[in-house]
Amino acid sequence: MDIIDGLxxxxxxxxxxxxxxxxxxxxxxxxxxxxxxxxxxxVSLISHAKMEDNLLFAALTTDSFLKMPLxxxxxxxxxxxxxLLGVESCTRREEALNQVLAAIESARxxxxxxxxxxxxxxxxxxxxxxxxxxxxxxAEARGVAVF
Length: 147
What we know:
single chain; Four Helix Bundle (Hemerythrin (Met), subunit A); elongated
């Protein structure tokens, strides 16, 4: 197992969460309820994005093929973060619901790009030693044991 497998595993968990949020957010009766259930999604997605940014993406900056894709990934991370954190300042339930659902849609599309383009290229660019170092740092940050 390496960091890419770990990040893909996180994606798998997020896909299940996205499904749950799409159903649950629509059933939230009040703006306050919607804001409250959005907080865990925001915190976990931001943590995931920072892990990608600070570990995997940082290790890929020297690959000229990935220059533009990495810029896109960074922009998308920031956009998803802003959308989810912005739910807290919404004044209407419908506005907040639309913002949450749009952020989830963006995250799904973003994950697909990572899975189709970025992660396969990372496997080509990074050698075993680099992957092992990144994996150790990811595992330590996540508090998991990797063998």
